[in-house]
Design goal:
The protein is mainly alpha-helical. The protein is built from 20 helices and two strands. It has helices at residues 3-9, 12-34, 40-47, 51-79, 81-101, 105-133, 136-168, 181-187, 190-200, 207-212, 216-227, 229-242, 265-279, 282-295, 300-324, 330-353, 367-385, 388-398, 405-433, 435-457, and strands at 356-357, 363-364. Helix 6 (105-133) runs antiparallel to helix 7 (136-168), helix 13 (265-279) packs parallel to helix 19 (405-433) and helix 16 (330-353) runs antiparallel to helix 20 (435-457). The two termini are 28 Å apart.
């Protein structure tokens, strides 16, 4: 079959549809991560928590994310990619309801950890599923839609928080059914979670998982529906030949190089990508954005609105990534993004270094420095979402050979969310000890180091079939 004939036989509409269903998990990943942003003050008031306690309430979900990502990668090799996404959808619904009805920090943390398990599972399974159903030539674009969904979820959470707080006057105030506004901010998430659960029942399992489970006829049926009859048979043969010669099922021990007995260098690159994505401090903006902007003089409503603007800019940046990822490749976008983030984070650090305390002990900036901080922070968000935001997930979903994809994603996902947890829980402490300038200075250094990491260790995966990925 010629390349042109194979392209003509592809069912692009179906591939796009099931990829979009998978990315609803990304939307919920974003919504669940961003909804906490507008509830911090309400949580402090409801549970009487200090800065460390608040940091733990905010970051508690991330513990679940780390273990959810680690478990999902391995469980997906046993039960399937689609199964894990369905389980995540159920956990999203339970967490949204429980976070809103919580009456203590302990109860709230339990429900947020459940939500974290869902976010962690969705974060690694959605890009893995898309990578395993999409052709190589536009796989990057479809997987990048995951980041658009994440940012759309964040923006939807910011907008929902803003509108609910605007209606009631504050996250502290009662809204409907005599419940505080911050509780409704969590309950809104049950709507997209329900849609996600229903839509997942209509999509097929990953054909590569079906091959692993020796369900060859079903795998061929899915591949035929995706790529056409002749191309489906060819792809089935390629997938079967890409697994271990002795046909053993994927396992964690596959992550070791048989010749040296050491962890494969590819796994370390995956860990590096996952960790650096968080060390640049992006989730400080997502989780503490409202608090950050209030600390430099903006009102609660203004701070929530700035989050909506940042989210909109992020979506525009992701669209740029979609247009470029399969043209110029993953690696150039990563190092350009690192350079842009290092520069803009540095400007933020400079602006915050001029901050002073007013009579009430609040941080204040001059008009010029306030504008510099606002513009630099939003440009930083743009650079992140045109590069590391989507591209890290694209690469993790495709860079591992079929035999180790689930295990590789489990390890990288654990480190990604573990780093996220560390950055998030330490920010309030850094804010109290070394200030905003010190915190942003640290993130600037990490962004600069990531340039060297990308140029030296990351290899391009653009246009390479999953069956041809080297371990």
């Amino acid at each position: 079959m010629t390349h042109a004939t194979q392209q003509n036989s592809e069912n692009f509409a179906f591939i796009l549809l099931i990829s979009c269903v998978a990315t609803i998990g990304g939307f919920l990943f974003g919504f669940d991560s961003g909804v906490i942003n507008g509830t911090v003050d309400g949580l402090q008031a409801a549970f009487n928590s200090d800065s460390v306690g608040t940091g733990f309430n905010v970051a508690s979900m991330l513990m679940g994310c780390a273990f959810g990502a680690a478990a999902a990668g391995r469980l997906a090799d046993l039960y399937g990619r689609r199964f894990m996404l369905i389980l995540a959808a159920i956990f999203f619904m339970i967490s949204a309801w429980g976070s809103g009805i919580a009456t203590s920090s302990a109860e709230f943390i339990v429900y947020r950890i459940l939500g974290g398990l869902a976010v962690g599972a969705a974060s690694v399974m959605a890009p893995a599923y898309i990578s395993e159903v999409a052709p190589a030539r536009y796989r990057g674009r479809l997987t990048t839609i995951q980041q658009v969904a994440i940012i759309s979820g964040l923006t939807a959470a910011f907008l929902s928080n803003y509108l609910l707080a605007d209606i009631s006057g504050s996250a502290h105030n009662k809204l409907w059914l005599d419940a505080e506004t911050w509780r409704w901010m969590f309950w809104v998430e049950m709507i997209p979670a329900g849609i996600f659960l229903f839509a997942l029942l209509l999509i097929p399992e990953s054909p590569r998982f079906l091959v692993v489970k020796r369900r060859t006829e079903k795998a061929l049926a899915v591949l035929t529906r995706l790529y056409g009859e002749e191309a489906g048979k060819t792809k089935l043969e390629e997938i079967e030949s890409s697994f271990a010669a002795d046909h053993h099922k994927p396992r964690f021990s596959d992550l070791k190089d048989k010749a040296t007995g050491k962890v494969r260098s590819l796994v370390w690159v995956g860990i590096g990508l996952a960790t650096f994505q968080q060390l640049v401090g992006i989730n400080v903006v997502f989780y503490y954005g409202a608090v950050l902007w209030q600390s430099v003089g903006f009102s609660e409503n203004d701070a929530l609105f700035i989050n909506v603007v940042s989210g909109s800019l992020s979506i525009a940046a992701c669209i740029v990534a979609i247009l470029l990822v399969d043209k110029i490749g993953r690696k150039p976008l990563l190092w350009i993004g690192s350079a842009g983030m290092a520069a803009t984070l540095g400007l933020c650090a400079i602006a915050f270094s001029t901050a002073s305390l007013d009579a009430e002990g609040s941080v204040s900036l001059s008009d010029n420095m306030g504008i510099l901080a606002l513009v630099a922070a939003n440009l930083y968000v743009v650079f992140f979402n045109a590069s590391w935001g989507p591209i890290m997930w694209v690469m993790l979903g495709e860079m591992f050979p079929n035999q180790i994809r689930g295990s590789g994603l489990a390890v990288a996902g654990f480190f990604q969310w573990g780093s996220n947890f560390g950055i998030t829980i330490t920010f309030p402490i850094m804010l109290a000890s070394i200030g905003l300038a010190g915190a942003y200075g640290f993130y600037t250094i990490c962004a600069a180091i990531s340039i060297v990491f990308v140029l030296k260790y990351v290899h391009e995966t653009k246009g390479i079939e999953l069956e041809d990925m080297k371990g």
